[in-house]
């Protein structure tokens, strides 16, 4: 899209908002700082790869002029907060800036009168707009891991009245990565930050979706940071935002939230529908009063040519009460040196800053935690497969990299949810670092546009790992499967045309809830209307239905029996009395933290759920002391697309197939067996922690 000086043009935007001399959201101001004091900067970022370049650029500026005080993570875009916050910590550590405060975005909702609510028990709202961002490869998975480079390289409001400077996509689209810039960066690798930037760019280039990387990858947020800093540097008597890198212009704009025809009520717009007075006193015939896009494939938004026509989230130049005067960057300035191979002035500044060293439950990327845990136990021989990122039938049929979050939205994104799962409640970085990690390395053989530098490091998919395992079985041998989450991967195996299912002997499923009475509730606490489902079944009910209706021999460990063995105090007391192997110490720390959090804050009331899921592993090992008993029951999974009932298990006598359901177990024997196994020095950890690993690294060779 090209910037047009017309009444209508469409932008995707990045905002610069400044309060006093504090920079909020990559930006700048023409307000004066106290003489002799540096500009104090707060950077708000979604931690996309280009944002990391912008962060490094700011960190390389003279601190007597520009002081980065804090970084806040936007948890509603291209990264998940548990991984994003670690990327920020790692870069700050690499640059010797552990003094910079780091915060993660909240989850509170917004009331109809505009009041911002504090964080509640769950995440407020669904993923209406965020679902447009791919979740797996070339999406949040790659950005969470920065294409797999994070672990391998690093050392472990527009209407608020605040002055706004806008650097829209139209402006950043005028500064694509040129081949000359790429080659200049490659030749200048004398600092760690330059190496990290180049490796990130190269991996993005090698895995780009087409052969037009140099015309379609832009200096988005790093360019924004450069414009902001330049405006601040020249802020005396500079009302028009003059700077070295971009041409600026004042425009009256607003963010579009609906589509024409305006002023027509069709039931899609919560700001107007059924209200005598629109919310936030919006204009009844203004740009916010039309149809609101209801999903990725909203029929209203698909034109006759099959292309999208809706403009929710775009920015328009408008007049009237809905307009806000904003200083806008319109395009990148050319290099002042016509003889330079670098065609943009900002390229020169970026290379100077980056290259010259002065004094100076879980998301897909959590697969790296699994690699680290296996490394700790000396089991790097165990293959790890990456499963589907969407529940069954939730990916978009035309562009499957994106999809809905009908069930996934039930998991809180922050405290007590994905943030804590992704970081293992803050303990993930205490694990020894595995050499294995998720990476976007790929090959032509597996559908990539070209071979990357190390295609042999490609991350295998879950189905591929299962197929490889089956091929290695001795004649007559079969495998047993234990599932501790949604049944998406298992359903995928069943639907594949491989002969995998016939080689599965038993499946142990931890999850599901068979209610005995009206008061016997499930645990999907974030969906109050669904009282009797269990999370693992609810998160992919169609997959659960496919598995339970298959020919597999299923043993179910339901929620009711898990609750009988969910005492933190009893298991922790036993752990305190036992021998301290590295794995026992780590588990004790984790369980102690879960128990403490449960006692301290209402957002952690569900922590005993995770303790009960250990039962599947103990039962699989088999021990007569458990005194376990089973009942065969005809089970039906409700999966009809009804949020208030999906995932519920029903006893249906019309079902021919019987499922073996764990009916009782000896809790005391369970606690003892679990603790005894962890405390056994046989097959114990080869490395106890990252700290121990660092000491090993520092030990001089013999």
Automatic annotation (TrEMBL):
Belongs to the IUNH family. Coiled coil: none annotated. Keywords: Membrane, Transmembrane, Transmembrane helix. This is Inosine/uridine-preferring nucleoside hydrolase domain-containing protein. The lineage of its organism: Eukaryota, Viridiplantae, Streptophyta, Embryophyta, Tracheophyta. GO terms for molecular function: hydrolase activity, hydrolyzing N-glycosyl compounds. Residues 353-671 form the Inosine/uridine-preferring nucleoside hydrolase domain. It comes from Malus baccata (Siberian crab apple). The chain crosses the membrane at residues 12-31. SUPFAM superfamilies: Nucleoside hydrolase. Pfam families: IU_nuc_hydro.
């Amino acid at each position: 899209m090209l910037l047009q000086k017309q009444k209508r043009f469409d932008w995707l935007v990045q905002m610069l908002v400044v309060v006093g001399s504090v920079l909020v959201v990559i930006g700048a101001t023409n307000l004066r700082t106290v003489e002799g004091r540096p500009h104090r900067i707060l950077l708000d970022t979604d931690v996309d790869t280009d944002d990391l370049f912008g962060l490094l650029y700011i960190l390389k500026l003279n601190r007597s002029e520009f002081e980065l005080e804090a970084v806040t993570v936007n948890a509603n875009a291209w990264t998940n907060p548990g991984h994003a916050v670690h990327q920020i910590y790692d870069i700050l550590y690499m640059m010797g800036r552990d003094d910079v405060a780091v915060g993660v975005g909240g989850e509170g909702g917004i009331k109809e009168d505009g009041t911002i609510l504090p964080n509640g028990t769950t995440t407020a709202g669904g993923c209406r707009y965020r679902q447009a961002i791919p979740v797996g490869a070339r999406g949040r998975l790659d950005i969470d891991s920065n294409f797999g480079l994070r672990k391998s390289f690093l050392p472990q409001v527009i209407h608020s009245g605040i002055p706004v400077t806008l650097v829209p996509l139209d402006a950043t689209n005028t500064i694509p990565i040129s081949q000359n810039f790429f080659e200049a960066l490659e030749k200048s690798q004398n600092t760690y930050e330059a190496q990290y930037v180049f490796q990130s760019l190269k991996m993005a280039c090698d895995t780009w979706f087409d052969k037009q990387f140099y015309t379609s990858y832009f200096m988005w947020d790093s360019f924004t940071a450069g414009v902001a800093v330049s405006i601040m540097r020249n802020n005396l008597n500079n009302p028009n935002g003059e700077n070295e890198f971009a041409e600026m212009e004042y425009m009256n704009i607003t963010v579009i939230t609906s589509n024409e025809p305006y002023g027509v009520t069709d039931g899609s717009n919560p700001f107007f529908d059924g209200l005598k007075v629109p919310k936030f006193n919006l204009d009844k015939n203004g740009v916010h009063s039309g149809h609101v896009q209801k999903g990725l494939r909203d029929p209203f938004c698909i034109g006759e040519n099959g292309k999208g026509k809706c403009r929710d989230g775009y920015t328009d130049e408008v007049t009237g009460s809905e307009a806000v005067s904003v200083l806008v960057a319109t395009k990148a300035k050319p290099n002042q040196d016509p003889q330079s191979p670098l065609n943009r002035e900002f390229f020169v500044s970026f290379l100077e800053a980056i290259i010259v060293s002065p004094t100076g439950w879980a998301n897909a990327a959590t697969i790296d935690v699994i690699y680290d845990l296996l490394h700790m136990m000396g089991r790097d021989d165990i293959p790890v497969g990456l499963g589907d990122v969407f529940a069954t039938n939730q990916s978009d049929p035309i562009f499957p990299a994106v999809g809905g979050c009908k069930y996934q939205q039930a998991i809180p994104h922050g405290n007590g949810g994905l943030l804590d799962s992704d970081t293992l409640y803050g303990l993930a970085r205490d694990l020894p670092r595995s050499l294995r990690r998720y990476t976007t390395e790929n090959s032509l053989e597996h559908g990539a546009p070209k071979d990357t530098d190390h295609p042999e490091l490609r991350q295998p998919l879950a189905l591929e790992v299962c197929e490889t395992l089956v091929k290695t079985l001795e004649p007559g041998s079969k495998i047993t499967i234990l599932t501790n989450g949604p049944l998406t991967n298992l359903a995928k195996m069943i639907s594949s045309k491989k002969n995998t299912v016939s080689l599965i002997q038993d499946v142990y499923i931890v999850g599901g809830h068979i209610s005995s009475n009206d008061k016997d509730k499930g645990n999907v606490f974030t969906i109050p209307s669904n009282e009797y489902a269990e999370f693992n079944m609810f998160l992919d009910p169609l997959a659960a239905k496919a598995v339970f209706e298959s020919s597999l021999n299923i043993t179910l460990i339901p929620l009711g029996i898990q609750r009988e063995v969910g005492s933190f105090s009893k298991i922790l007391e036993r752990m305190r009395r036992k021998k301290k192997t590295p794995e026992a110490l780590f588990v004790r720390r984790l369980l102690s933290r879960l128990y403490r959090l449960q006692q301290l804050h209402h957002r952690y009331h569900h922590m005993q759920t995770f303790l009960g899921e250990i039962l599947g592993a103990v039962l699989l090992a088999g021990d007569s002391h458990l005194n376990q008993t089973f009942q065969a029951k005809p089970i039906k999974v409700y999966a009809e697309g009804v949020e208030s009932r999906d995932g519920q298990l029903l006893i249906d006598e019309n079902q021919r197939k019987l499922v073996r359901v764990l009916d009782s177990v000896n809790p005391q024997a369970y606690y003892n067996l679990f603790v005894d196994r962890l405390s056994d020095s046989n097959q114990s950890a080869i490395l106890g922690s990252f700290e121990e690993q660092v000491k090993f690294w520092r030990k001089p060779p013999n």
